[in-house]
Amino acid sequence: MKNLSLIALLFLVSCGSNSSDERKNGYSDVPKNPEDSLFQDVMKLHDEAMSKMKKLAVYRNQLNSRVDSINKIKSSAKESLAKKYSELSTELQHAEDEMNTWMEQFSIDSAQEDVSRRITYLESEKAKVSRVKDEILSALSKADSALKE
Question: 82: how many CB neighbours lie within 10 A of its CB?
Fold first, then answer.
């Protein structure tokens, strides 16, 4: 529900301005102040991470399918491979969950009345979403390597 609210809010913000320097997602291509710049950085990291979400699900499904296939064979020699795939699937799910949690907790208009608090908030959110993005990319890299074996 909160994800839907965030998406709706982003949509409303983007539709509310007719300024030529406003992007469709609500933030300016040309930052007008430090908080605009930080907000833009946060959204860029978010967008980069979100672009990988479908791949997370695809890889997770492929790994789970391989685990199911290995388990049907009931070969003790393949148990370690099934365990590896299962752990990677769990890591992919965790990365997705972290992104969803970040989005639910992110407040697009937090502390807009207090520039200093807003900058502090956005710096913190930038660090959080950067960490989530890194976790997503790491999990995808590991899964990609395992699926090529």
Answer: 18
Q: Which amino acid would we find at residue 90?
A: T
- In terms of Cα–Cα distance, which of 133, 106, 134, 104 is closest to 121? 106
Domains: count for the chain: 1
User: What are the C-alpha distances in Å from 72 to residues 68, 81, 84, 92, 93?
Assistant: 6, 13, 16, 23, 23
In a domain, 7, yes or no: no
Structural domain boundaries enclosing 118? 32-148
CA distances from 28 to 7, 107, 127 (A): 17, 18, 21
Digit-coded pLDDT (tens) for 47-97: 999 999 999 999 999 999 999 988 888 777 778 888 999 999 999 999 999
Task: Specify if 27 maps to a domain.
Answer: no
For residue 97, tell me if it sits in a domain: yes
- Could you tell me if residue 74 is inside a domain? yes
- For the entire predicted model, the pTM comes to 0.76
Contact, 80 vs 117, CB < 8 A? no
User: Which tens digit of pLDDT belongs to each residue from 19-59?
Assistant: 444 444 455 567 778 888 999 999 999 999 999 999 999 99
